[in-house]
């Protein structure tokens, strides 16, 4: 009888140990799957904008009509087509990427697919203000002519604001006289002969100076 009880107790303990071990393995496996799921999930990338063959064909046809593309309208985005797209983008305020993004297709007046409409336009699709400013020609600095400096010196001498020679040179003494005149006339005391000062003195501007705008 005692042996039978020992046998039953042994079997019960063995069964309990087996169940515990199986549960531990299951828990570990479940934990591992969760971790893997979390890692594999990560940060999802947004949809990539891709032009369709029909759109590329329409682009090539349009660019040929504008004289920007001399190749065949085959619906493939080849190097010649990319170069033509780059030329179009540069002349339309877009970033010269050579790719058919949403901003470029819309500028060309080519209809988007429903999937493409769901993808917002990236700010990087447009040419930056910095690059536009860099490509714009800078205005030439305003400079008074020798004759204008001579007339200004003559006027300043008459007004008692300058006692140097009428040399036509904008030297330090002349600049000091100009500052006195500008302060007396409510102008910014720069000591330079800008357009505002010349006009106040009644001295005519050259056509080139009028075009440059000068410094008021």
Output the helix-strand order: HHHHHHHHHH
The main pleated sheet reads as: none
User: How far is the N terminus from the C terminus?
Assistant: 119 Å
Structural class: mainly alpha
- Average residue pLDDT: 81
Relative strand content: under 5%
Q: What is the count of helical runs?
A: 10
Number of strands: 0
Q: State the shape.
A: elongated
Using only C-alpha atoms, the radius of gyration works out to 40 Å
> Into which percent range does the helicity of residues fall?
55-70%
Unreliable parts: 24-40
Can you give a write-up of this model?
The chain has 216 residues and is mostly helical. Among the domains are: 53-129, no CATH class; 146-212, no CATH class. The chain is built from ten helices and no strands. The longest helix is centred in the N-terminal third of the chain and has 40 residues, at 2-41. It is elongated. The N and C termini lie far apart (119 Å). Mean pLDDT is 81; it is low at 24-40.
């Amino acid at each position: 009888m005692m042996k039978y009880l020992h046998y039953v107790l042994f079997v019960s303990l063995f069964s309990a140990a087996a169940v515990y071990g199986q549960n531990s393995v299951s828990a570990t496996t479940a934990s591992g799957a969760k971790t893997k799921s979390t890692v594999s999930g990560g940060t999802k990338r947004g949809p990539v904008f891709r032009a369709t063959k029909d759109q590329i064909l329409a682009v090539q046809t349009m660019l040929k009509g504008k004289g920007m593309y001399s190749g065949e309208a085959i619906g493939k985005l080849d190097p010649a087509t990319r170069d033509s797209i780059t030329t179009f983008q540069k002349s339309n305020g877009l970033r010269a990427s050579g790719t058919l993004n949403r901003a470029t297709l819309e500028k060309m007046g080519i209809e988007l697919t429903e999937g493409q409409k769901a993808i917002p336009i990236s700010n990087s699709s447009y040419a930056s203000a910095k690059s536009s400013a860099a490509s714009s020609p800078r205005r030439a600095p305003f400079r008074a002519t020798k004759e204008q400096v001579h007339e200004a010196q003559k006027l300043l001498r008459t007004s008692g604001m300058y006692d140097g020679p009428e040399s036509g040179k904008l030297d330090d003494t002349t600049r000091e006289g100009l500052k006195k005149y500008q302060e007396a006339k409510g102008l910014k005391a720069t000591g330079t002969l800008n357009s505002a000062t010349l006009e106040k003195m009644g001295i005519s501007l050259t056509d080139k100076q009028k075009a440059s705008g000068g410094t008021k």
